Predict the structure of Pantoate--beta-alanine ligase.
Amino acid sequence: MVKGYEIPRQSHRLSTHDGVSSLLPRIFPHYPSDFHGDIQKLMAVSGGVDVVFHPNNLYDYGTNPNVNNGGDNRLERKGSKEKGEGVVSCVEDSGFGHETWVRVERLEKGMCGKSRPVFFRGVATIVTKLFNMVEPDVALFGKKDYQQWRIIQRMVRDLDFSIKVIGSEVVRESDGLAMSSRNVHLSPEHREQALSINRSLSRARIAAEKGQVNCRELRDSVIEAIEEAGGKLDYAEIVGQESLEAVEEIRSPVVFCVAAWFGKVRLIDNMEINIRN
C-alpha cells in the first residue's frame, strides 16, 4: 500500500462494506511492507475500512521436511537465525504446498512477464485464493500495475467469478512520480532521474494526440529521455489496452507501459492514450 489511498476512497463510493487485503506482502516477503503504518493511514482516510484481511500464514501444510513450523504458523527455512527470516513463499521455486496454479497465458507473456516469467502465475493464483476466501462483489486494482489489472480482469471473466474488477487511476506525487512503496528506496538523485518516466510519457501522449501515431518514434523518444536521465530501461511498450499486444501505429486506445531501473529500484508506470483513427 502507498500513501494517497485512492482505492479505499473509491471503494466507499462503490460498496456498503469495504475491505483491504495485505495478503500479497505475506506471499512475497521481499516486498516493501509497513503493516502498522498502513493501518494508521487507513484510519486517517475518511470512513476508514470495515475489514483488513491480514492472514498470518495460509501455507502451513506440515508436509515439507525442509521447513520448520515456528509454532505461530510462520514458515521458516531450517537454519534461519531469527523467526520470520527466510519465510517460504508458495509461489517461488523454493516454496511448497502448491501444485495447482492459475495462469492467464497470453496476457502474462509480455512486458513484466518477460523479465519475471513466473510472477503473474503467482499473482493470479494468490488472487484466486483471496477471491475464494473473501467472496467480494467488487475488487479494485491500481492501474499503475496495468498488466496485473488486465490479467485479473481476464481471469475473473474466464473463471466466471461474480466479481466486478475495476481499475483505479494512477495516483501521483505533486511532481508527477507515480506513487509506489518502492519510492522510499530512491536516493534524492535517483528520484529526480525517475521523473523522466512521467515527463516523457506525457510528451508522448501529447504528440500522439497531435497526430504522431508511429509507435517506434514514440518509443524511441521515451527510451532516449529515460536513458539520458540515468535510468536503465527494462521495457517500453505501446500495447492495446485490453489485448496488451504491441502495435505499430495507434489506431485505437492504447497504453504506453514503461519499466526502468534507477539505482537498485525498479519502477513501473504507464499512460493511456485514448485516440481512435
Q: What stands out?
A: DSSP finds eight helices and nine strands in the chain.
